[in-house]
Amino acid sequence: MEDIIYINRKTGQQEKEIVKGPKTMRYIYNKPIGKFGLRLLFRRKIFSMYGGWVMNKSKSIKRIDLFLKENDMDMSQFVIPEGGFKNFNDFFYRKLLPNKRPIGKGLVSPADGKVVAFSTIDSCMDFYVKDCTFNLLTFLKDKDLAKKYEGGSMMVIRLAPADYHRFHFPADGIPSETKKIKGFYYSVSPIALKQNMRIFLENKREYSTLQSKEFGDILLCDVGATLTGSIIQTYTPNQAVEKGQEKGHFAFGGSTVVVLFEKGKVTIDADLLENTKNGFETTVDMGETIGQ
Question: What is the model's pLDDT at position 24?
Answer without folding.
Answer: 41
